[in-house]
Every structure is written in C-alpha cells, then in structure tokens.
Design a protein that fits this description.
The chain is an alpha/beta fold. It has a domain at 134-286: Rossmann fold. Helices cover 33% and strands 20% of the residues. The chain is built from 8 helices and 9 strands. It has helices at 6-38, 74-85, 93-101, 133-143, 160-165, 179-192, 228-232, 281-286, and strands at residues 122-125, 128-130, 150-154, 171-176, 197-201, 214-219, 234-244, 251-258, 265-273. A 7-stranded mixed sheet has the order 5-4-3-6-7-8-9. Strand 6, helix 7 and strand 7 (234-244) form a beta-alpha-beta unit. Helix 2 (74-85) runs antiparallel to helix 3 (93-101) and helix 2 (74-85) packs across helix 4 (133-143). The longest helix is centred in the N-terminal third of the chain and has 33 residues, at 6-38. It is globular.
Amino acid sequence: MRVVRANQLKQPVFAALVLVAAVCIVWVGLRADRQTRSEPVAQWPDHRSPATTTAAASQPTTHPWTPPRFGEMQAERNDMVALQIARRDVRDPRVLGAMRSVPRHLFVPEDRRRAAHQDRPLPIGFGQTISQPYIVALMTDLLGLQPDSKVLEIGTGSGYQAAVLTELTRQVYTIEILKPLAKLGADRFAELGYTTIRAKQGDGYFGWPEHAPFDAIIVTCAAGHLPPPLFAQLKPGGRIVIPIGQPGRYQELQVVTKQRDTGQPRFESICPVAFVPMVGEVQQRRR
C-alpha cells in the first residue's frame, strides 16, 4: 500500500481553499455593486427649499435650489401660458416653465384673484399695476438669463416679476421706492418661501451699487431716458430691458446692450408698451 505524506496532501487542499475564497470575494463585490446602482439619487422635494430641508436629504453644494411649488390654480396658469404667451414670440422653455410655476393669483389683491390670469395688467394698489402675463414673459425672455446670472429689478411692485426671475437664477435683487409696496413685497417673499430674493426699499434710479455689476437689469416702470447709474452697474455684454418714453403715453420697450469692445450702449426697440412712470430722482431729471 502506498503511503501519502502529509505535505503532499497540503498542496491541493490549499489550492482549493484559495479558489473558493476568490470566488466568494468576486460574488460579494458584484452584489455590492448591484445594490449601489439600484439606490435612488436624492433630490430636493418640490415644495421645500434648501433653507427648510434637512442636510440628510441633500447638499446645496451639489444640487441647485428649487423654488417653491404651488398646485393651486395650476390649470389656469397652464392655459395662460398656452393661450397668451406660447402662441406669441416667447419660445424659451425655461421662461414658459417659470410662468407656469409662479402662483400669479397670490401676487394680486384678493378681490382681483379671479382675474389674475387674464391677458391684461391689474391694479395692485398705491397707483401701481402688475403687468399682463405676456409682457412679464417677454421682458424675462429678453434678459437672456443663465442659471448663474445676477439680475437687478427696478420696481418690485407686487413681487411677481422677481418671483418669475428666481425660477431662472437664484441671484435676484429687487428695489421698490414706495415703502408700503416694498414691505408687502418682502413679506410676500417670506410667506411664499422665495428665500433667495434680496429686496430693499429705495430709489431704483441709482441701482444697487453694493452688488454690482449685474449681468442683466429689468426696469418695470417707464423712464424718459436710460438712467446712467443703471448702465454703469451693467457688466460688459450685459443688457437692460426698459420701457423708455414719456409717462402717461405709450413707451417703447427697449433692450440696451453694453457693448464689450466700446462699453457704449446699443439700443434695440421691441414693441410699444404702457407702464406706470418711474418716480424719485428721475422726476428731477425731467425738469
């Protein structure tokens, strides 16, 4: 009978154990990879902003801020966009989406909410108006905003235009000269969750130099001329959308671009409009 030595048995047994261990390691790795791929990516909930979302949900450094969402009167907003805006010359899907998202009825007096989505301006008190939906969308579209743009609005009014702008960029600054409206606008932003809009009371003619330069400036009141301080606070290549003309008459909606090579303004007329007049320093310049 042949005698098998112990060291002869150890070699095939050791090799078998190594093979089994390698198979186990590969199987465990494949299973872990499959589980990782199946886990959903965390996103911001539609009805909450990063300011009210816990850190466990996501990190603001890797996810853009999502403005608050409102389901009330969504059908009316959809019809407003489809019938009054998309059929005209506003084509940017981001602007159309912003107009569908912002609850226009919450930016007008309660007794005007049934008319909030009609194709006309509405009074908001203190001799001021909220522009018709088409004009809001057109002026927003003409700004050419990008997600990292910094935009200044002159004439907060009810706050509706600023809310539309913040759907496109979180860097929105707005100035209102009338103290009661400025307070109402700031309170409304806080109430509705528009936490990234920076608002102040002051004369918009002078702009907001502490936060200049701006990529774009929108003026929602009529001026007889282009205010020099606003143009000075515009980046090269930036644009101002402004109604220019005499108060109480039709004005011309203009896009004023600061040319990169010369720094001079280039004016482009868009269409006739009718806005409430700019007040404050601009009135002194008319004399």
